Amino acid sequence: MSFSALASLVLLLVTVQLFGDLSTFAEYDTGLLTIMKFLAYSTPKIVHLVLPFSVCLGILASQAVFARNSEIIAMQSLSVSLVRIYAPFVVVGLLATALMGATSFYLYPLGQKEAEKIQNLSIKKKDVTGSFTLSGGRFKVGHDIYGVENLDVTRGVMTRVTCYRFTGGRLTEVVKAESAGWDGKRWAARGLKTVSLGDRGISEPRTAAYLPLDRRPVDLVMAQTNTEILPMPDLRDYVHQLRDSGNSSPTVETVYHGRVSFTLAPLVITLLVIPFGLRFPRAGGIAKGISLGLILGLSYWGFHSALTGLGSTGIVNPLLASWGANIAALALSFVILFRKRRAVYG
Fold this sequence. Notes:
Layout: H1 2-20, H2 22-27, H3 32-68, H4 71-77, H5 82-123, E1 128-133, E2 136-141, E3 144-152, E4 157-167, E5 170-182, E6 187-190, E7 193-198, E8 201-202, E9 206-207, H6 232-244, H7 250-261, H8 265-273, H9 285-312, H10 318-339
Antiparallel strand pairs: 1-2, 2-3, 3-4, 4-5, 5-6, 5-7, 7-8, 7-9
């Protein structure tokens, strides 16, 4: 049931993404093969988002089938304990958690990285190429090659900039700046120096006010620090790198801890919704139980998203923002599982 729910949700969201991007594909005259590759590499992200809810739907649907055929009643009449009844669902939750870990830690970021490459280079055909590594960002504009320690596209700020300018295949200038900020028209630099490498030798460094770069911040997105496309080991190294340099970021910290905590979402949702699908008619009916299970599953999902959003802005501690929803959901599930009295037929 959970696999069927996952396949259905993934197919639905891939279709929604396809129709949502049709105008972009048409605008840039994108070929069918490129579109298919883009959708294929985007699929791991969709799986990462819908897998927990597909487990919720699968468990509740299975319990509805059992209730319709009175199988739960039959098992309990044979003195089958609730632990044994719950066990298969918990196993499904554990298997989904393992799949979630593989997707969240590796498949999703690697797939998203390739999807962004296809979108920027093959679909939108941007003339700025580049990449980000843990040692900084690099990009090429025309014949000029830039290296930056950090690039914030949203704020329009670069730090530790080095530009190598080539003419006729020969290096002619090296431009360095401590930082540069986009003023709406140009990149205003601080501590900028230019060394010319002419036929007469190396000239003395000369200062200037602007970088020789005419691209907007959004055009340089390929060289930005994008935590979404970093596999878990690289993301962990990046977090430690920021801490060691004294530039710890609540956004990056929240993404890191959230990547770990959300991996447990299938198991958390499993424990949260199991009791509600096993309700008996005189306790409110299976329909009511399934409705409550869906509401709880969606509430957990929404609460986790809200907390991580607050953590990214620095309002809530990144650890609390990442794990708060899991802790609350697990506490509630254990209260329901071990303290709630079972309703009885008759």
